[in-house]
Amino acid sequence: MLPQFISITNSKFQLPKQTFQLFKQFSSIPISGKSHPDFLPKIKSPDSPEAKKILARINKIIKQNPVVLFLKGTQKTPGHGYNRAFVQVLNLEKAKFLGIDVSEDSEALDGVRAITKIDEIPQLFIGGKFVGVGKDVLDKYRTGDLEDLLIESGAEFVD
């Protein structure tokens, strides 16, 4: 069974009104719909030498490790939401996995997005194959398919 997550959005927890005014005052949501330059992909052309180098690095990581999770955060301190859920699920399965923190490695983020053509993070690879993102991976855990994929891939397990 998937662990339940605690929500802090109950009526007992309220931020002072001034906090919301501060967030509003310093908000930088673009009206044009364009992303901030820091969040734009570094891979401009998939045929560039730089892009080929990044893709080769990411493909090598995926092929050399039975289980690879591209996430925001680390295995010990995953980000919120699905990042945390994926780490918990892999830990519940007792699977050893390599976690790549895309918030610290923008090339890894660009590379994995270029490979899967999906912008969402976290992304899970097992046995060199893309397993999925978000709810799809959690559904595979609930049905037992994730365990089967881990076993078939030759993944290592913690005793």
Question: Which properties best describe this structure?
Answer:
159 residues, alpha+beta, Glutaredoxin, 4-stranded mixed β-sheet, 6 helices, 11% strand, globular, Thioredoxin-like_sf
Describe this structure in words.
The protein has 159 residues and is an alpha+beta fold. It has a domain at 47-153: Glutaredoxin. It has helices spanning 17-25, 49-64, 82-92, 106-116, 134-143, 145-153, and strands at residues 67-71, 98-101, 123-126, 129-133. A four-stranded mixed β-sheet has the order 2-1-3-4, sandwiched between helices. Helix 3 (82-92) links the parallel strand 1 (67-71) and strand 2 (98-101). Helix 3 (82-92) packs parallel to helix 5 (134-143). It is globular, with a radius of gyration of 18 Å. The chain starts with 16 loop residues before the first helix and ends in a 6-residue tail after the last helix. This is Monothiol glutaredoxin-s15. Pfam families: Glutaredoxin (PF00462).
